[in-house]
Amino acid sequence: MKAKAFLQKHLGDIILFFVLLFATTLGTIFLLLAPTSSASGANIFCDDVCLLYLNLSSPQESVIYEEERVKELDPSLYGEEVEAAYEIEGALTPMVFAISQEGIAVLSSGCPSQYCVSLGYTLDPRKPIVCAYNHVHVEYVGEIASLPPSSSSSGVDIIV
What we know:
22% of the residues lie in helices and 29% in strands. By secondary structure, it is of the alpha+beta class. A 5-stranded antiparallel beta sheet has the order 3-2-1-9-8, with no helix packed on it. Strand 8 and strand 9 form a beta hairpin. The longest helix has 32 residues, at 2-33.
């Protein structure tokens, strides 16, 4: 009789527990099986204008689309692991991007939150590089386009 009373009293809690357990398990499986980046490069956009293409397999072959807003820097100033470094003019402050074997990183930015800098090096499109303060985002791509992309293809509609 006690078991029946317990079950009647806590049936909702038991169902909620199993629903949450199921959802957590599915989420974990999705994250483990989700494809990682097979990108060979990345486009850096500011206000939906492509400023720079970073070639991840050969950083020296990166392409500057907006020469008045992008400056190539000496990578040795940022450590041995840095293969290429660029300063771009964000909407409000300059930012420094670098390429290494570990991926792409924002080394410095004038934004107050510094989220973009604290992200470190990444090649994972599930960890997007975004600086909302400077209206800058990075899109990983399979290969370089013959012409610079005129706008973002990610569907970004608003930058806060």
